[in-house]
Write a structure and sequence with these properties.
single chain; alpha+beta; OB fold (Dihydrolipoamide Acetyltransferase, E2P); 3-stranded antiparallel beta sheet; 4 helices; 20% helix; 35% strand
């Protein structure tokens, strides 16, 4: 796990910098999914509310959805995942970022966990 990241109960990580956030799948979750073979990227400009589906990730084991932990608008997507979705297996909390978003002014980030809290959550 990376210091400075925030985590959701549904296994998304966020790196919040001012009004912007980079989001992705946690390293723990990619390990549970196994080899990732496809990532459906959201559209730039898509407006998300907390709990909205961000993306669908297909692995050799299953198909899983990621959810928006906060409200905001998608400003960028990691198109490198189109060519090589396995980047998520190699570096989920770095090069494997999925999207960037402008966080809504009234977004509530208080429910997000620190790395230590998330680690305890995954051992629960």
């Amino acid at each position: 796990m990376s210091e400075g990241l925030k985590y959701s109960e549904t296994h998304e990580w966020l790196k919040i910098e001012g009004e912007e956030a980079t989001l992705g799948l946690t390293d723990y979750a990619q390990g549970e999914l196994g080899d990732i073979v496809f990532v459906e990227l959201p559209a730039v400009g898509q407006v998300l509310a907390p709990g909205d589906v961000l993306t669908t990730i297909e692995s050799v084991k299953s198909v899983s959805e990621l959810y928006a932990p906060v409200a905001g608008e998608v400003t960028d997507v990691n198109t490198a995942l189109d060519a090589d979705p396995a980047i998520l297996n190699k570096n989920a909390e770095g090069e494997g970022w999925i999207l960037k978003m402008k966080i809504a002014p009234d977004a509530d980030v208080s429910g997000l966990m620190t790395a230590e809290q998330y680690e305890a959550h995954t051992k629960g």
